[in-house]
Amino acid sequence: MHADALPVLEAAPEGRPNLLGLTRPALAILLDRIGVGRTHALRVFRGLHALRLPLDAIPDLGRHAAVIAAHTRRPPMRIAEARQSPDGTEKLVFALADGARVEGVLIPMKGDRVTLCVSSQVGCAMACRFCATGTMGLTRGLDAGEIVAQVHAATARVAAAGGRLRNIVFMGMGEPLHHYPATRDAVRILRDDGGPCFKARHITVSTVGVVPKMRQFARDFGGRVQLALSLHAGTDATREAIIPLAKRYGMEALRRACLDHPLPGSRKLMIEYVVLPGVNDGPDEIDALAAWCRDLPCLVNLIPFNPFAGAPYRAPTADEVLRVATQLRARKVPHSVRWPRGRSVAGACGQLALESTG
Ligand code: SF4
Predict the structure, then answer these.
(1) Which of 65, 102, 264, 298 is deepest in the core (most CB within 10 A)?
(2) Is 252 a catalytic residue?
């Protein structure tokens, strides 16, 4: 994909809105407009998002339920397939109302806590060369309700297994900032203390570097919701070779956006770096990365490349990953390694591409 061909996905969906995708203020406006009255907004919102009830099961709503149903949609979403990896990671395939499918991943953490990786688009337009989703192209963006519905379905699944969904990361299929209004509204709904009530610091939105939307995200959430930048290179030349969007937003523009990004307290910006042997792991590249990170409160998260069919790269050995870590340590760049989880079910980073057919 040429960077200039980036499709615009800003248009509001036509027709009746997806009920699950309305923020509480938007729901209040709608209830006023259809004669139900905004006084019911909290009850409806809590019923939908905290109790995860169908509209007609929300207590004390009476005849209003039918009025709301007539003015909104609530497209069904189901988990069509679940595949568990021996390491406890579980890949979920969500079936959407129009037959489209997206993938999510449940990742067990310490104790009973679980992280969900959600999708924001069916496929992706960004065509990053190290990512299976990037080979699919973009079918469409999800609306906020379809993003929230993934969280609701996963919450129920995790609770049924005795766990607690605590973290949401927008690192599944799609570039969340390419489809920003839906991502923004989904985050607002997920944070709402009348609904799912996820803590802002437990939500991470990952971007491959859509600079204007990174700045918009900073304005909308003031740095409270985590931002992760998929950087994956230290130089423009390397980045452009693996990420088409890099031709539009270069390293310097990304660095300026990151320096301007508000970070409360000791919060750090997450910098994702997929290790591609022979491509972005040499000393010159790591020198450039260290220079790029200078004065930026950040943590570089090294991710060993997870191979997929037809991938132009190979997976690094553990030694190759540790060599990058050693180079970063020598240059005093804070870093960590995210060793792969879920590889056996193609649920590791960069592997989501709907190979399943169930
Ligand atoms: S890495 Fe993210 S932005 Fe790039 S192709 Fe994959 S899903 Fe899209």
Answers:
(1) 102
(2) no
> 233 and 303: one domain?
yes
Cα 92 to chain centroid distance, Å, stands at 15
Q: Quick check: is 356 in a domain? A: no
Ligand 1: which residues within 6 Å by Cβ? 124, 126-128, 131, 133-134, 173-175, 208, 230
CB 165 within 8 A of CB 116: yes
pLDDT tens for 171-204 read 999 999 998 999 999 999 999 999 999 999 999 9
133 CA closest ligand 1 atom index: 6
Give the tens place of pLDDT for each residue, 281-334. 999 999 999 999 999 999 999 999 998 889 999 999 999 999 999 999 999 999
pTM: 0.92
Does residue 14 carry a catalytic annotation?
no
* Shared-domain flag, residues 83 and 25: no
Q: For position 276, which CATH number holds?
A: 3.20.20.70
Q: Could you tell me the distance, in angstroms and rounded to a whole number, from the CA of residue 241 to the centre of ligand 1?
A: 14
Residues 183 and 282 in one domain: yes
Domain boundary (54, 71, 88) is at 71
Residue range(s) defining the domain that contains residue 30: 19-71
Following DSSP, what letter does each residue of 188-242 receive, concatenated? Answer: HHHH-TTTT---GGGEEEEES--HHHHHHHHHHHTT-SEEEEE---SSHHHHHHH
With the most atoms of ligand 1 within 8 angstroms of its CB, the residue from 119, 133, 171, 354 to mutate is: 133
